[in-house]
Amino acid sequence: MAATQDVNKVVLAYSGGLDTSIILKWLQETYGCEVVTFTADLGQGEELGPARQKAEMLGIREIYIEDLRESFVRDYVFPMFRANAIYEGVYLLGTSIARPLIAKRLVEIAAETGADAVAHGSTGKGNDQVRFELAAYALNPDIRVIAPWREWEFQSRGDLVEFAEKHQIPVPKDKRGEAPFSVDANLLHSSSEGKVLEDPDVAPPDYVFQRTIDPEAAPDKPTVIEIGFERGDPVSVDGEALSPATLLARLNTLGHDNGIGRVDLVENRFVGMKSRGIYETPGGTILYHAHRAMESLTLDREAMHLKDALMPRYADLVYNGFWFAPEREMLQALVDKSQEHASGTVRLKLYKGNVIVLGRSSPYSLYSEDLVTFEEGEGYDQADAEGFIKLNALRLRTLAVRDRQTR
Fold first, then answer.
1. Domain layout of the chain by residue ranges
2. Overall CATH class of domain 183-299+341-361
3. What are the residue ranges of helices labelled H in 114-193?
């Protein structure tokens, strides 16, 4: 293949699983190039030691295994949650937001090791191929991206297993047949798609759920917690200051134990098809409700409404892979400006899948008991409302007069 001769070294996003191990060997055979592996710990909950062992077994000399949990939450999850970003009304973008960080490190490692290409294991039907590649090209316009699933000749799981056995790549027993569903996980969420989940009219089996107990099995006694915020970011739980990753992990545990954060979604993929997924975002769901409660107290009405109007656009950009695009960065600047006074505490009750706001307080609160009280208060003359209403009704009355005359 003439087109493959110009690749000298490639950095592969490597999980250590069967598919990426096959990709690793396929890259060596097809491109005749040196492969560097990069494995990111984003809190997926898997032991990463085997990834190093498998890479070494396959002859890899440059192996990168990095704990990126703090960076993931601090620099990607928290900025997104400042925007209250939700895709199509329910999806908190747990998979989407992990891709730009992985792509960024792929490109950086390529520069560090003198590689001229990066590779990923995303299929040609999904969103992740778009996210990885848009991010890579934004960060290095000259980088070459190899997507084996769009290139190789394999047509089935059996073809992959045959290739693995030919090259002495260990194949676990549970990988010899078709997987019941595929899973992607990180510190923010887990997603399950495919196979037993492909019929959107069939309820997901109980064994699909990774991060939450059944809300019906959650404790009968509610859990009450308090989350502290500074400039829109959570900084403490029940008065204990925590690092970003530690805080999200704490909320994940609380969410898991109370059955919080399950979503069954049929979504519109960027590549044009609909797909059904089961998403679990326990800590993120708690954080979303807490952050909105904090903003309800500290954001001006028009600032909040403008931010809410722009949120779907922000969510689309994250979902579609435009994290490093100028329009996302522009929106982020607006979002971050709105968070200057989003500091204080929010008290929540967690109960059988529900997140219930019990109270919120802030030194920057715009809420005035004196203004809203039904008792006599200062600062608001009810008689002023008459002129306010008449001015706002002026155009409506003018329209009504015209319509009455032209009937």
1. 2-77+95-178, 183-299+341-361, 379-405
2. alpha beta
3. 128-139, 148-151, 157-166
Asked if residues 349 and 223 have their Cβ atoms less than 8 Å apart, the reply is: yes
How many alpha carbons fall within 13 Å on the CB side of residue 73? 28
- Tokens coding 172: 């676990």
Domain 2-77+95-178, what fold?
Answer: Rossmann fold (3.40.50)
Contact 262, 278 (CB under 8 A): yes
Q: Which residues are catalytic?
A: 19, 99, 128, 182
- Read off the pTM: 0.94
The C-alpha angle 214, 220, 226, rounded to 5 degrees, equals 90
For 176, residues 6+ apart whose C-beta sits below 8 A from its C-beta are 161
Asked if residues 278 and 90 have their Cβ atoms less than 8 Å apart, the reply is no
How is residue 373 annotated by DSSP?
A: -
User: What are the CA-CA distances from residue 122 to residues 99, 150, 285 (Å)?
Assistant: 11, 9, 27
List pLDDT tens digits, range 287-346.
999 999 999 999 999 999 999 999 999 999 999 999 999 999 999 999 999 999 999 999
Decide the pairing of beta strands 240-241 and 233-237. antiparallel
